[in-house]
Amino acid sequence: MKTSKQTESKRFTRDQVRSIIESTELRAESCASLYRFDPDEFVRETKVKFIIVDHPAGQAEMGAAQIFLINGDLARYQYDWNLFYVFDVHSQDLCDIYEAFFTDDDEWIDEVRDCGICNYNILYIDYIYLKPEYRGYGIGRIIAKGLVEEFAKWGEIVVTRPVPAELVEEDGAQIIACQPEDETVTPKLAAMCKSLGFIRLDRTNIFFLPLTAEYPTVSDLLKKMFPEHKKRVKGRS
């Protein structure tokens, strides 16, 4: 999970943070091939914008995420593709994920299989980026869990790597780019992953969330952040 670095600026009150969270929408843009000729076409790249709909300026973009929806079941059982090619042809990042999670026989490693994972559909969270003014309030944790709830419905596992992402200049345009692991930020992001139920893969900086187990929901996190609003949040969930 490549997420944005923290900032020391604190501009929002507690009630304003709650209002921001409650009025944020996840707006996704993606495309998928009708017929898949190549193995990397079983990976659907999705850009997700975080839009505050109840904002003084009308609407405001708080940040964005990039996720990959990997349809391993379709590739394997309907198109007879070896999963290695699905990951390897797409990108080095996904090739690294394959090498970490799969055996030479194209099967889950024991650490994953022991969690009860049966299918091969994966949500990979590549990065989460928040604009500096929205950092440091716990909003990133809520968004990360929101991405899981919204986009991992069809699979049984979520995978991510906790490294920072920042807005940078490239060829005259601003883009979100992944940054090197940071000795201060990366441990905090790893701790966030663990608090959301993610499990660290042995001897790696890769985390996975088995959706076959119990884990905190967005509603659970909101109740913890704003205990005085338990009744209200419960009524909305």
Q: What does it look like?
A:
α3 runs antiparallel to α4. The two termini are 26 Å apart. It contains 9 helices and 10 strands. Strands 1, 2, 3, 4, 5, 6, 9 and 10 form an 8-stranded mixed sheet that branches. It is globular, with a radius of gyration of 18 Å. The protein has one domain (2-236). With 237 residues, the protein is of the alpha+beta class.
A few lines on this structure:
This protein has 237 residues and is α+β, with helices and mostly antiparallel strands. It has helices spanning 14-22, 72-78, 83-90, 92-101, 110-113, 139-151, 185-195, 218-225, 230-236; strands at 2-3, 24-30, 43-55, 58-71, 121-130, 157-160, 165-170, 173-178, 199-200, 207-210.
Distance N to C terminus: 26 Å
Strand content: 25-35%
Give the beta-strand count. 10
Question: What is the percent of helical residues?
Answer: 25-40%
What is the string of SSEs from the N terminus onward? Answer: EHEEEHHHHEHEEEHEEHH
Note the quaternary state here.
Answer: single chain
The rounded Rg comes to: 18 Å
* Average pLDDT reading: 88
What's the number of structural domains?
Answer: 1
What general outline do the C-alpha atoms trace?
globular
Structural class: alpha+beta
Low-confidence stretches: 4-8, 233-237
Number of helices: 9
Q: Sheet with the most strands? A: 8 strands, mixed
